[in-house]
Amino acid sequence: ITETEIKKGLAGVVVDYTAVSKVNPDTNSLLYRGYPVQDLAAGKSFEEVALLLWNGELPSQIELTEFIATERAGRALDAGVKAAIDLLPLDCHPMDVGRTAVSVIGARHALANDSSREAELIKAKELFAAFPAVVAYDQRRRRGLDIVEPREDLDYSQNFLWMTFGEEAVPDVVDAFRVSMVLYAEHSFNASTFTARVITSTLSDLHSAVTGAIGALKGPLHGGANEAVMHTFHEIGIDKDESREDAAARAKAWMEDALAAKKKVMGFGHRVYKHGDSRVPTMKAALDRMIEHYGRHEMLGLYDGLEAAMDEAKGIKPNLDYPAGPTYHLMGFDTEMFTPLFIASRIVGWTAHIMEQRASNALIRPLSAYNGPEQRSF
Ligand code: CMC
């Protein structure tokens, strides 16, 4: 095997078909089951988008009503899951809490090892409904606050924010949150989705695949980037009273130093998109609305300063995590909770891919080129 035959990082390797989403880097576009993601973000609820990704078509009114009822009935934090979370130290990473919670949910599920499409869809919908309570409870316990029970009169995004903050969020905030959920839901064969498919390909169960996917998502080269973006903002320093221009100038200087030191700056670059991430304009518009709502123009200064300096120096564009991080910060989430929010959304894409992998399975088992010592004896 020659050096060029080795596809390090599987870059450019096409491993299977998928009908779930289409990423087109040439036109910077992303389609979920044929629909442009920006159109879905403009006009559809996250619940409708979830049904679209699972079923291939947007739901009828009856299907949607039925799903909404199931989702609202399945939101409460299960006592066994809560007990497991309570065993975890407050200083462990919230991604570890999310990963453990999904594993516990799987171990306690009556259909855990039933891989029929019907059972997989039930488990996917239940996980979609149950996961927000994991994030909300974990956020609250880290702040020394009591759990807030879900409310069936609220939609998914309203209720997520309600359970986290114990107050009703205003419509603008709810909408920015919904947009982030829609945009994070699916993105073809990214590292975590591929992980889920690898696990599924061994005929393992859905919760194992999602648990593994969460492990892959945690890393800063993937989902952990939304958290890392906020660490960058904090490292530069956020000063609410600073002007937008001054914040931008400091951010620009920080970026120049970082690039001179050959640092990788999280929230920029993408394996597939080389001219910009299709999801960024929609998420940036949501961030802009949050900046207006909270009156935090210095955050926009930091955002613009980093973006401009990166573009000038390397021509590298932001990815979705770049506008998502500050958006979640403004909403009031702790920085470490950002990637668990990504889980809540990506559960949809992962489970859609798990079902697709099952439907035409082949064990995923690549080869390696050995470069250790020749055969020897001891
Ligand atoms: N900061 C500085 N330089 C960068 C960055 C960055 N964020 N991204 C790429 N580069 C440079 C890199 O140093 C390399 O330069 P050179 O050729 O001079 O060595 C060149 O661009 C190619 O980069 P690469 O890492 O070989 O490209 P890749 O396709 O393997 O990387 C990536 C894709 C996402 C891992 C990378 O861009 C990166 O590490 N970005 C930061 C992490 C991040 O934001 N991840 C989120 C990804 S998208 C959303 C998600 O999944 O959550």
Number of strands: 3
Biggest sheet architecture? 3 strands, antiparallel
Q: What portion of the residues fall into strands of 2 or more residues?
A: under 5%
Q: What's the pLDDT, averaged over the residues?
A: 97
What are the SSEs and their pairings?
Blueprint lengths: L20 E4 L4 E4 L2 E2 H7 L2 H10 L5 H13 L5 H8 L7 H14 L9 H26 L13 H10 L5 H14 L6 H11 L4 H13 L6 H12 L7 H17 L19 H15 L2 H18 L6 H11 L6 H22 L19
Bound molecules: carboxymethyl coenzyme *A (CMC).
In summary, what is this structure?
58% of the residues lie in helices and 3% in strands. It has 16 helices and three strands.
Notes on the structure:
The protein is mainly α and 378 residues long. It has two domains: 17-220 and 337-359, Citrate Synthase, domain 1, CATH 1.10.580.10; 225-331, Cytochrome p450-Terp, domain 2 (Orthogonal Bundle). 58% of the residues lie in helices and 3% in strands. It has 16 helices and three strands. Strands 1-2-3 form a three-stranded antiparallel β-sheet. Strand 2 and strand 3 form a beta hairpin. Helix 3 (61-73) packs across helix 6 (117-142) and helix 13 (280-294) runs parallel beside helix 15. The protein is globular and about 55 Å long. Residues 9, 190, 221-223, 225, 264-271, 314, 316, 319-321 line the site of carboxymethyl coenzyme *A. GO terms for molecular function: citrate synthase activity. It catalyses: oxaloacetate + acetyl-CoA + H2O = citrate + CoA + H(+). Keywords: Acyltransferase, Transferase, Tricarboxylic acid cycle. InterPro entries: 2-MeCitrate/Citrate_synth_II, Citrate_synth-like_lrg_a-sub, Citrate_synth-like_sm_a-sub, Citrate_synthase, Citrate_synthase_AS, Citrate_synthase_bac-typ, Citrate_synthase_sf. Pathway: Carbohydrate metabolism; tricarboxylic acid cycle.
